[in-house]
Amino acid sequence: xxxxxxxxxxxxxxxxxxxxxxxxxxxxxxxxxxxxxxxxxxxxxxxxxxxxxxxxxxxxxxxxxxxxxxxxxxxxxxxxxxxxxxxxxxxxxxxxxxxxxxxxxxxxxxxxxxxxxx
Length: 118
What we know:
With 118 residues, this protein is mainly alpha-helical. It has two domains: 4-58, no CATH class; 65-104, no CATH class. The chain has helices at residues 7-22, 40-48, 65-85, 92-104; strands at 28-31, 52-55. Residues 1-118 form the Integrase catalytic domain.
């Protein structure tokens, strides 16, 4: 996504993909009240599709603990990979992509399948 204005269209695509692949509906949408999520069109879409809007206070990323924990795990993995192999910082994006793929192929305590299998 290059522009924040693309968020609404990307969310609609994501919702359809998730619901088609899992057969389950998205029940809640959590956001930091970014302007890209506060448009009347976006809010109407959420209400129309019975998706609960959950807004965290601005400037408090620690309240979105699941996403922040995943971000920290990804950051730790990237830093480890970059320092172990001694790659230049221009490869940071590639290392992040690999770290995300690895995390999606690893099982967790709460779900019997990996995100990749789901």
